[in-house]
Amino acid sequence: RKEVEQDPGPFNVPEGATVAFNCTYSNSASQSFFWYRQDCRKEPKLLMSVYSSGNEDGRFTAQLNRASQYISLLIRDSKLSDSATYLCVPPPRGGYNKLIFGAGTRLAVHP
Amino acid sequence: NAGVTQTPKFRILKIGQSMTLQCTQDMNHNYMYWYRQDPGMGLKLIYYSVGAGITDKGEVPNGYNVSRSTTEDFPLRLELAAPSQTSVYFCASSHGGAYTDTQYFGPGTRLTVL
């Protein structure tokens, strides 16, 4: 079983919509995750970290549900510039901050 | 700060040729990483380094070599290029030592092997 599983999408939403992605994980000991964003043909960039208390940054809210072993990312008032692939990344295991990056969920925001 | 820089941006190689992908970071980070990303796929770790003179294999090291003689530089060497090495290569760095350490990525090198 993969450590994290994400719906690859694409999620096609109009500008102004609210969209949510979920990511399920298998390691029940995980206490934090990262959401990275990768624009088309660009490098990944950290969007936010998420802990059991959740995290909010402007239009973006991330939650970690340890009981059900999933992480969510909510984007409110979607902008065209939010179009990207969103990667749910589990915490490093085995030391040296080695992260596992899956294929992510693709979001396309249209006018 | 320039962050993580990579050269070249694009390269086309013939089968059997060799090349070095350059990566430099100016954030004084201890940890550096090389990933490859095939179309529609996630990043796969090729090699990583936790400091000058220390390197180790990642998930897909075959066909590649690395060295880390300085904190700033972490070049990736392809010795005998094969079509299977056609990919986008990302270098990343992080401070190291913290559980929630952020990785910062370079803009990538797009390599085609024909």
Question: Which descriptors would you attach to this protein?
Answer:
heterodimer; A: 111 residues; mainly beta; 10 strands; 50% strand; globular; B: 114 residues; 7-stranded mixed sheet; 4-stranded antiparallel sheet
Explain what the structure shows:
The complex is a heterodimer of chains A (111) and B (114). By secondary structure, chain A is mainly beta. In chain A, 0% of the residues lie in helices and 50% in strands. Chain A has no helices and ten strands. In chain A, a hairpin with a 2-residue loop joins strand 6 (55-57) and strand 7 (60-65). The mean pLDDT of chain A is 91. With 114 residues, chain B is mainly beta. Chain B is 0% helix and 49% strand. Classes of the chains: A mainly beta (111), B mainly beta (114).
Helix residue percentage of chain A: under 10%
Q: What are the secondary-structure elements of chain A, in order, as H or E?
A: EEEEEEEEEE
Helix/strand/pairing category of chain B: mainly beta
**What's the helix count of chain A?**
0
